[in-house]
Amino acid sequence: MTSIDVQSLTKEYGSRKAVDHLTFTVRPGLVTGFLGPNGAGKSTTMRLVLGLDRPTSGSATVGGRPYPALREPLRHVGALLDAQAAHGSRTGRDHLCVLAASNRIPQRRVDEVLAETGLASVARRRVKTYSLGMRQRLGIAAALLGEPEVVMLDEPSNGLDPEGIIWIRALLRRLAGEGRTVLVSSHLMNETASFADHLVVLGRGRLLADTPMREFIDARVQPRVRIRTTDATALKSALARHGHDVVEHENGHWTVDHARVDDIGRLASAAGVPLLELAQEEGTLEQAYLDLTGTETEFTTQTQEA
Ligand SMILES: Nc1ncnc2c1ncn2[C@@H]1O[C@H](COP(=O)(O)OP(=O)(O)OP(=O)(O)O)[C@@H](O)[C@H]1O
User: Which domain of life is it from (predicted)?
Assistant: First the structure.
């Protein structure tokens, strides 16, 4: 079982703490979403895990060992940090062949990952002719090359087309299903909600949350019920009798906060109120995330006063 362990990790750039006494563990068999506003320290943490930067203090290990101590590291950790990193004058296939050779990975894996990432037909083209999405796929192919137990991807959906986004979702779920440790940073909340089991959230270099995704949402966003009727007066008074406030929306539907469909459905039925619509609206990851990080954002968009 290989986990990523980050212990009291701190990285200072001059007087700025990019990462500030950070401690968390990324466990196998799960997809962990790595979230945080711009500048929160996600990429720095990933770079420290990969030994691309030295921590000011603390440690980051993979399976109990620092990354630089791993022999043939691509067989243990696959990472996509910067999709522009591949040499533009090499072909996609050559790029992967060089990586494979330096980590004693059999050449057949090159063709396997090219097929898996949908790049087989452009494998002999130079990387500089690749679109952003193709480069992203090549970076993911490189990360998968050594069949690593740990996969770390920084914004993998960046530049991918809709088919690619569906593909990456399925890929991440499969990798976790195979028992691998999967850490994925993203700013796309709907995307993250579609593949993550667990979340690690940073703000200004510090840990804000380390929790299963469902718990993260449920702790911050109350569920509500969406409802529509032909008899507004009767419904409103039935709800009021049971202490429920309704919020009326422009297109004719209402929402009842802190409520469950079972209760509202029974209540409407007992009062003989006809319903056209009755649905549970669960809190979204985006709502929960914004609730948590509202005060932690270094760069917020200011609305200009007239
Ligand atoms: N090489 C560097 N030199 C100086 N400061 C740096 C360096 N790398 C990162 N920083 C600073 O460290 C902080 C964390 O940056 P980092 O790129 O890790 O954030 P992030 O969470 O990945 O952000 P984003 O979501 O925008 O990618 C930022 O304030 C950034 O300006």
Answer: Bacteria
